[in-house]
Amino acid sequence: MCSYYFLEVTLNVLDKKGNDIDVNDRQFSFYIKEALKEIFGQVGSSINFSVLKFVAGKGIIRCPSTFYVKFRGALTLFGRHHSNTVAFDVHRVSPCLIAFITNDSTYEHVSSL
């Protein structure tokens, strides 16, 4: 069994007027921590996770496999922080980080026969 799960996640934040708010890597981590805390309280906020890569609102996150279901649930259910609308979009999940190297939607198999 794997120790960690890796998630490719996009964070979308809108203000009261519906304007996009750009987030940096620290804000990205903050919103994840707030999602865990809001849904699962102090226990949720104590879940260790790492943002391995963050570029333009999209990040690759590592979380312990024992907390994967809670982690994914918190990201899915979290929707509002103060007056901002927040949405996490999970694009890919894998227990193996190397799976993020390829893009399954553009892969073409070439037969060597």
UniProtKB/TrEMBL annotation:
It comes from the Eukaryota. It comes from Cinara cedri. GO terms for biological process: tRNA 5'-leader removal. GO terms for cellular component: multimeric ribonuclease P complex; nucleolus. Pfam families: Pop8. Gene3D superfamilies: Ribonuclease P, Pop5 subunit. This is Ribonuclease P/MRP protein subunit. Signal peptide: none annotated. The lineage of its organism: Eukaryota, Metazoa, Ecdysozoa, Arthropoda, Hexapoda. Keywords: tRNA processing. GO terms for molecular function: ribonuclease P RNA binding. Residues 10-76 form the Ribonucleases P/MRP subunit Pop8-like domain.
